[in-house]
């Protein structure tokens, strides 16, 4: 196993269990404890973990932009429920934009039985996932490949998105707050999501329950700019009232 693969697995374990122990990881991966300590030091330097005596704990900061390979393995069951709900809304012949979130990838997988769909995306993985769809039109935004993620970002990607008008914009974010709106950890991601929201008749925010009442580094848009929130668990009564007051439809499989 490559060192980067081992670190990604350690980071996923941190996501799930909140802490790891050096001696346990050493036995699991059949490497020395010093090797594991270097892995944890690397994760700490990247802002993803905090070393402790004998191990490490997860860095809970919502300003941390986790690697895509880790994000797509987190909260899988929740993302699958969200994907099933949104895929059921898509009809044959629809035009839509999918962002480069891991939730959008699950949605792309779930709607592959549709016909004559046009998809615009800045996700390299979604482009690959949908490459075998006969009768579909798949458009890449182009742009710069984001370091550490399978996303195309930057001026070219934003400009391409701004030239289209679609039925649905489907995207996610790092956090949502009743006062600060939708936020993300990375400015380049936030910028293209702003353009995605503006390009659609109906903008759909696909987020699991952990994103409520969280604020990340930079704003994507105000709550009032979106049309629907699809999530895996019903939010608090306060959130229900806020969304209803803003004219935002709340959809939950529960």
Describe what this molecule looks like in 3D.
The protein contains 10 helices and 15 strands. The protein has a 7-stranded parallel beta sheet with strand order 6-5-4-9-12-14-15, with helices on both faces. Strands 1-3-2 form a 3-stranded antiparallel beta sheet. Strands 10-11-13 form a 3-stranded antiparallel beta sheet. Helix 2 (22-29) packs across helix 3 and helix 5 (76-89) packs across helix 6. The mean pLDDT is 91. It starts with a helix and ends with a strand. By secondary structure, the chain is α/β, with parallel strands linked by helices.
Describe, in short, the structure shown:
This protein has helices at 3-17, 22-29, 33-45, 68-71, 76-89, 102-110, 124-129, 155-162, 187-198, 237-245; strands spanning 19-21, 49-52, 55-58, 95-98, 118-121, 137-140, 144-145, 152-153, 166-171, 175-177, 181-184, 200-206, 218-221, 228-230, 249-251. With 254 residues, it is α/β, with parallel strands linked by helices.
Secondary-structure blueprint of this entry?
Elements: H1 3-17, E1 19-21, H2 22-29, H3 33-45, E2 49-52, E3 55-58, H4 68-71, H5 76-89, E4 95-98, H6 102-110, E5 118-121, H7 124-129, E6 137-140, E7 144-145, E8 152-153, H8 155-162, E9 166-171, E10 175-177, E11 181-184, H9 187-198, E12 200-206, E13 218-221, E14 228-230, H10 237-245, E15 249-251
Parallel strand pairs: 4-5, 4-9, 5-6, 9-12, 12-14, 14-15
Antiparallel strand pairs: 1-3, 2-3, 7-8, 10-11, 11-13
Helix pairs in contact: 1-3, 2-3, 5-6, 8-9
